[in-house]
Design a protein that fits this description.
The complex is a heterodimer. Chain A has 7 helices and 9 strands. Chain A is an alpha/beta fold. In chain A, α2 packs parallel to α4. The two termini of chain A are 34 Å apart. Chain B is an all-alpha fold. Helix content of chain B is 82%, strand content 0%. Chain B is globular. The chains are: A alpha/beta, B mainly alpha. The complex binds adenosine-5'-triphosphate and magnesium ion (MG). The site of magnesium ion has 3 residues of chain A, from α1.
Chain lengths: 249, 246
């Protein structure tokens, strides 16, 4: 689905953030990217979305390595970035409008989805009238409506309270299974990564030359209590330790 | 009622004026509000049918040109850094020109036609529109524009669906300042040389030492200014109703 081949990138010439990074993501996978602050997680997303281009190396999406990436992946930023002058329905329809879908057709397509996303009755409300969790759901719906199979989520739940966060995680897994999407998910929360993902990419060194790739040995559907299994607890400890070491540097 | 205190202040002010004017009793210098009202009523046909349409036309033409010119310059500046760096100082400098001193030049250029007055009006109203609209167009943030880009948006999409809505409240702030200035612009333009119009009429009454006659057209000019402001406010509230909900 997505492959980085020897990708090097830096914002300034003198300092690379990524250096010869290669990795592969299979279609339908749920992958979490975990690493210390400033290690380059969001930078990877900027490359995948096409906002920045690698200085050397290649990124291929769905087997195509020299196509334009802008508009080809669904992206959900950390802040919801909903437009305050648009209603919830109009916000969700934005990617369709940009793809030149007629307004009426777009509205008809999106209305049933609002219900499915737990947003029934909010279509004519404005973002300022919604709770944080609801706004994140609208932002996620907007990413889904970009019509792309690959979804990039950059710390989507970090601004939510603990309880809302838990229910949003469960909700997200359901949506992912239902839509057969491929998800790349940045998080600082190790427990969140373990609960959600098939694999975890751990960023350790700087510049990033490779990830430590960790398979999460849990079957699906998962249960919160699975996180208390001893092998998972060990894994969690190991991840936390690795992050702590990275912060020390 | 939230305007109660405003109404009260105006009433107190007018009462003091009325009493003061009666005590001084020199209506050719300081007419009382009631005298002005009576005079306006007496002159209503000349003022409203003859002079008002001319002044109103100047104001409207001036505003339309200012809105067109102002938003065009604002868009041009926001889309091109060279243009912005070149024009911004000139724009500021244009406001340092004492318009009243410059106005006779417009009479030389355009004669005593409507255009010399329109030119004065444009010169003082296009600035608030341009600067506010430009600030509005520049108030977008990078994250939002990048989100648009990741959806495959073109420059045009970003402009129409992001920058225009975000600039709209700023544009209206500028327009509110502009409409109040437009009345002043038109009046100044007419003072400098005209055969008709509310500003012209006010000046003519001055030469006749008719105090109430000076104030009557000014009273009407004030009403024009207030009505224009209310109009803009109304349109603004209709167009950006979402602000109430956020
Ligand atoms: N636009 C930019 N210009 C220059 N340097 C940048 C830019 N954006 C990020 N950086 C630098 O690149 C490095 C990686 O940043 P990045 O945003 O990818 O980190 P991150 O892993 O997402 O961190 P966080 O967890 O805090 O979001 C940081 O050192 C940052 O200072
Ligand atoms: Mg980041």
């Amino acid at each position: 689905m997505l492959a980085f081949d020897n990708v090097t990138f830096g914002y300034e010439r003198s300092r690379n953030i990524l250096d010869g990074l290669s990795f592969n993501v299979q279609s339908g996978e749920f992958i979490s990217i975990v690493g210390a602050s400033g290690s380059g997680k969001s930078t990877i997303f900027r490359l995948v979305t096409g906002l920045d281009e690698p200085s050397t190396g290649a990124i291929s999406l769905a087997g195509n390595s020299n196509g334009q990436l802008l508009g080809k992946v669904g992206y959900m930023p950390q802040q919801d970035l909903l437009l305050p002058w648009r209603t919830i329905l109009e916000n969700a329809c934005l990617p369709l409008e940009i793809a030149d879908v007629k307004k009426k057709t777009a509205h008809e397509q999106v209305k049933p989805l609002l219900k499915e996303f737990g947003l029934a009755g909010t279509e004519d409300k404005y973002p300022g009238e919604l709770s944080g969790g609801m706004k994140q759901r609208v932002a996620f719906l907007r990413a889904v409506l970009s019509g792309n199979e690959l979804l990039l989520l950059d710390e989507p739940f970090s601004a939510l309270d603990a309880i809302t966060k838990l229910s949003m995680q469960e909700w997200l897994v359901n949506q992912w299974e239902k839509r057969k999407a491929t998800v790349l998910f940045i998080t600082h929360d190790v427990e969140e990564a373990l609960f959600l993902s098939d694999r975890i990419f751990l960023l350790k060194n700087s510049p990033v030359t490779s990830f430590e790739e960790i398979e999460v040995p849990l079957p699906r559907p998962r249960n919160r209590s699975d996180l208390h299994r001893s092998d998972i607890l060990q894994l969690k400890e190991r991840l936390l330790q690795a992050l702590r070491e990275a912060v020390m540097l | 009622m939230k305007n109660a205190s405003t109404v009260l202040i105006v009433i107190v002010f007018l009462t003091i004026w009325e009493i003061g004017a009666r005590l001084i009793d020199k209506s050719f210098i300081l007419p009382s509000p009631i005298q002005i009202l009576l005079k306006s009523w007496e002159l209503k046909e000349v003022l409203l049918l003859k002079h008002l349409p001319i002044t109103l036309l100047i104001i409207l033409i001036g505003l339309i040109i200012s809105i067109g010119l102002g938003t065009a310059i604002a868009i041009w500046m926001s889309s091109n850094a060279y243009v912005r760096n070149a024009l911004y100082p000139i724009l500021i400098a244009s406001q340092m020109i004492p318009v009243i001193a410059l106005a006779p030049i417009f009479v030389l250029w355009f004669g005593y036609t409507i255009w010399s007055k329109v030119a004065v009006t444009v010169l003082i109203t296009f600035f608030p529109i341009t600067v506010n609209t430009f600030d509005g167009l520049s108030s977008g943030n990078k994250e939002n524009e990048e989100l648009f880009l990741t959806m495959g948006a073109t420059k045009k999409d970003i402009f129409l669906k992001y920058l225009v809505p975000i600039a709209l409240p700023h544009f209206f702030s500028g327009l509110k300042v502009a409409v109040t200035l437009s009345v002043i612009g038109a009046a100044i333009g007419e003072w400098l040389g005209a055969q008709a119009g509310l500003g012209y009429f006010s000046r003519r009454m001055m030469t006749q030492f008719d105090g109430a006659g000076v104030f009557a057209p000014i009273f009407i000019l004030t009403l024009i200014g207030i009505s224009l402001f209310i109009c803009v406010n109304f349109i603004e509230n209709r167009m950006i109703r979402w602000r109430l909900k956020n």
